[in-house]
Structure formats: C-alpha cells, structure tokens
Design goal:
- By secondary structure, the protein is an alpha/beta fold.
- It has a single domain (17-196, 227-250), classed as NAD(P)-binding Rossmann-like Domain (Rossmann fold, 3-Layer(aba) Sandwich), CATH 3.40.50.720.
- It has helices at residues 26-37, 49-61, 76-90, 113-141, 162-182, 203-206, 209-218, 227-238; strands at residues 17-20, 41-46, 66-70, 95-98, 144-149, 187-194, 249-252.
- The longest helix is centred in the middle third of the chain and has 29 residues, at 113-141.
- 43% of the residues are buried.
C-alpha cells in the first residue's frame, strides 16, 4: 500500500564498513565499486600507492564513500595497524574481501622456492593475516563477514599455475574452516571462485587471441567474465540477503565446471 513503509533492502550495505584487499584494479576494484554502490564505506587496500590513490579518486568522483589504506598483506604489523585504524575511524569492520593476489606462470620444475613462496604468501598468508586481524574486532562487535577469493582452477587446473592452484586450494579450505569455527559467533565466511576473468592476472592469456578464443569456447556462456560479472556475488554474500549462507564456495564461471 502507498502509505506503508518499504521493507529494508536485503542487499543493502548501508552503514557498513568493508575492506577490500588488492583493490586498485581488476576484481578488487570491481568489488570495491559494487560494495560502495550498495551503500558501504569501502576501504580499498593495495601495495601500489599510485594506483590505489587513483582508484579511490575514481570512486569518490562518482560520489561513493571510500578511503585508501596502503599496506602489505603479507606483513603482520602493517595489517594489524591498518585494521585497527579502520575500526578506530569507522567504529567497526563489517566485512573483508581477501582479494589480494599475484601470478607467475611457468612449468612446475622451473619454479624457485622464492617464486613458490611469493604466490603462497600473497594469496594464503595475506588472507590469514587480514582475516585474523579483522575477526578479532568482529568478535567484539557481534559478527561480520569474511570473503575469500578462490578460483575454479582448484577444480580444473591447467599447466603453468602450480603455486597459484595450490594457494587457491588452501584459501578455499581456510574459508571453510573459518565458517565452521566462527559461525557460532555470527561471523560468516564464504568463498567466491571465479572462472576466467579478464584482469591484470590473466593479461598474458588475453593477449593471445587463439588461446583467448579457445578458453571462451569452453564456457557455456561463450565468453570470458569481466570483473563486474563477479562483483555482485560479493554483495550478496556480504549483505543480509546472504545472512544464512556460510561455508559456501560460489562458482561464478559461466557454467564452465558444469560442462566438464
């Protein structure tokens, strides 16, 4: 009826504070934009200060609420200080999107220990450190949401990505563990596992027209994803619309896994 108040939007993030790591470009920027458009104040993190400042400027120019936090997700003191500062400035931290990542494609036998460690440090240790710092505050405030960014490569790998696949497998397992351990305290943890997305991490594949087309043919929807195809899944899982979703691995892959 015209005189009745509208029910609250379950997909709204109004009044919430969301931290997105690796947010200066690609999926991270898309997650940040989507959360801000849903009403959140988004704290964008990146280790590239110039790119981070530009990403924050773009969102602010659109009238969206956001700020930047430059820190290295693999350095505990930097992570702890940054998360504590977010809570000090905004009163709480409602959600974390563990998106920071890197890539280094080569045959398995050619990886050095340092190269192997670099991939696992950013994807896995970064997610561990940021989640640990945020969850301590979420426990005090009565709840929150952790989003891990996995990959369909955990289920259907290809050559030259051994450390990446191992890291994403571990991140997926960590997400499920947090869901079980902290669900009783109203902290949900879910995993978004994208398929092939055109980002900085896939630029070598995108630059090869034959390979790009070959991969597109494997996707039932017939194309690669854009970051904006994946970002709404984060809004769903972070908002009240996903309030009973916990421990889920949500594949956003255009049907790729279903076709195998």
């Amino acid at each position: 009826m015209s005189g009745e108040a509208k029910p609250p939007d379950p997909f709204s993030l109004t009044g919430r504070t969301v931290l997105v790591t690796g947010a200066a470009r690609g999926l991270g920027f898309a997650f940040s934009s989507a959360a801000a458009r849903a009403g959140a104040h988004v704290v964008l993190n990146d280790n590239d200060g110039v790119a981070l400042s530009e990403a924050v400027r773009v969102l602010r120019d659109e009238g969206l609420k956001c700020s930047g936090a430059r820190f290295d997700v693999t350095v505990k003191n930097e992570v702890t200080s940054a998360v504590d500062k977010i809570v000090s400035e905004h009163g709480r931290i409602d959600a974390v999107v563990n998106n920071a990542g890197n890539q280094n494609r080569k045959p398995f036998l050619e990886y050095s220990t340092a190269e192997w460690g670099s991939i696992l440090d950013v994807h896995l240790t970064g997610a561990f450190l940021v989640s640990q710092a945020a969850i301590k505050h979420m426990l005090d405030q009565g709840g929150g949401s952790i989003i891990m960014i996995g990959s369909i490569m955990v289920e259907c790998g290809r050559g030259t990505i051994a450390p990446y696949r191992a890291a994403k497998g571990a991140v997926t397992a960590l997400g499920k563990q947090l869901a079980v351990e902290f669900g009783p305290r109203n902290i949900r943890c879910n995993v978004i596992a994208p398929g092939y997305v055109e980002t900085e991490l896939t630029r070598e594949l995108v630059a090869n027209p034959d390979l790009h087309a070959q991969i597109a043919r494997r996707v039932p929807l017939g194309r690669w994803a854009t970051p904006d195809d994946v970002a709404p899944a984060m809004v769903f899982l972070t908002s009240d619309a996903g309030r009973y979703v916990n421990g889920l691995v949500l594949y956003v892959d255009g049907g790729t896994l279903a076709s195998l």
